[in-house]
Amino acid sequence: MEPQLSFRGRRALVTGAGKGIGRAVAVALSRAGARVTALSRTAADLESLTRECPGIETLCLDLADWDAVEAAVGAAGPFELLVNNAAVAELQSFLEVTRSALQRSLDVNFGAVLHVSQIVARQMIAQGVPGAIVNVSSQASQRALRDHAVYCSTKSALDMLSKVMAMELGPHKIRVNTVNPTVVMTDMGRMNWSDPQKSAAMINRIPLGKFAEVDDVVNSILFLLSDKSAMTTGSSLMVDGGFLVS
């Protein structure tokens, strides 16, 4: 068995690639030989990414802009690998959910995944090449969390969208799966969960007794993109330390 996964010669698109998990996935794929296009709405993040990893190509786009995405992603392809990582988390209690927060969350967490995947999958089919899509979901898709009414709901919708995609794209040799992490120790994760009193309540519900590191999620995504998971589609890979079984 080869010591690490190789994506040499394959083209990959990663959304939400400016920070955190998306950035780490883009770098890992590039270092594993893939030709990577990193998509983010923040130009400064993309500039720092290309300084870190000069071989990565970039797209600066707001995924909520349907027409701009159609044009730019269509022109940048075709791709064989897609990681839909971009997401927003606007936390409000159920009684305080605003229309703007709901619409933004639906546009990015659900609509953008559907749209980008359509563009990329159509190109895969036209090229007659097999492909793999990984959608970054959350443990929140399967467990109610306070102040997460919209976030939980959009991630649940993403899980079901991924299953339908897997069913319809399977005959074209395109696999679709999700990864569903617990809290991940990105820079934002460390900032939001640095209060021991707040983090203890969550960690106490995780049998492994810790939050996920970025590499835990990246390694799971790379596995699902690779030929090592050639018979896996329509699945949700939990990267939650056992949170959902507790």
Task: Walk me through the structure.
This protein is of the alpha/beta class. It has a single domain (11-185, 213-239), classed as NAD(P)-binding Rossmann-like Domain (Rossmann fold), CATH 3.40.50. The protein has eight helices and seven strands; from the N terminus they run βαβαβαβαβαβαααβ. The protein has helices at 20-31, 43-52, 66-76, 99-127, 149-169, 187-192, 196-203, 214-225, and strands at 11-15, 35-40, 57-60, 81-84, 131-136, 174-181, 236-239. A seven-stranded parallel beta sheet has the order 3-2-1-4-5-6-7, sandwiched between helices. α5 (149-169) links the parallel β5 (131-136) and β6. The longest helix has 29 residues, at 99-127. The protein is globular and about 50 Å long. The mean pLDDT is 95.
- Name the average pLDDT: 95
- CATH architecture classification: 3-Layer(aba) Sandwich
| Adjacency order of strands in the biggest sheet | 3-2-1-4-5-6-7
Give the total of domains: 1
What radius of gyration results from the CA coordinates?
Answer: 17 Å
Number of distinct helices:
8
Report the biggest beta sheet as strand number plus sense, adding barrel if it closes: 7 strands, parallel
The H-level CATH homologous superfamily, spelled out, is NAD(P)-binding Rossmann-like Domain
Give me the secondary-structure category.
alpha/beta
**Which topology does CATH recognise?**
Rossmann fold
Q: What is the CATH first-level class name?
A: Alpha Beta
The tally of beta strands, per DSSP, is 7
Percent strand: 15-25%
Assign an overall shape.
globular
> What distance separates the N and C termini?
34 Å
Low-confidence stretches: none
Order of helices and strands: EHEHEHEHEHEHHHE
Which bin fits the share of residues in helices? 40-55%
Keywords: NADP, Oxidoreductase
Family: Belongs to the short-chain dehydrogenases/reductases (SDR) family.
Protein name: DER reductase
GO molecular function, one term: L-xylulose reductase (NADPH) activity
